[in-house]
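Contributing new records

If you add data, match the layout below exactly. Sequence lines come first and carry their own label; structure lines follow with theirs. Keep one chain per record. Anything else will be rejected by the validation script.
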Amino acid sequence: MFEFVDKHYASRPHERMREVLMNPDAPGPSIHYHMIRGGKDQRNITIWEPGVVGGEYIKTYGHYHVGNMDETYHVLLGEGLAFLQLRAKDSSGNDLDDVIEEFKVIHAKPGDKIYMPPGYGHLLLNTGKTYFATSDNGVVNFDETTPQKLPGQADYEPVRRMRGFAYYVIEKNGAPALVANKNYREVRKADFAGLPVSA
């Protein structure tokens, strides 16, 4: 009955998050966010610490789904933002990590549902003063060796190569502002949901 208890909890430590931070040498909390994995029969719960790291709001690592998987997040507590980005494809139909076909920002507050369509990368971040918490219906396979570390249905590698998503979110004059990630060559279509883009 308790076969998978030790695999339910996972966290993202500061050392791991450096790979996708705007300022990787900035000090930060030992843990950026916490995950309780529910598997196919329960929802997953994610809890973000409040605060900023090098001026950047605490966020998830970000990933793309493998295959035709979609996901819905329910916001439980706090306030934050969700990012969705869709990679462009080359003439052979291969994904281009550094060219984004569509980038979208969604404001997230308690009671909201945020749909992550197949093919889109996504991350969420905490822009509030309290914990930010969500539940989601993402699939977790507890038969994997370490499902709480890098679940097989999620591809983190393109995000690592680009050192994050197409934009970072910093605190500027007490409010969120976007900063372009210079590792991306092009963002073809963007919906910033009213957020300013800072130089």
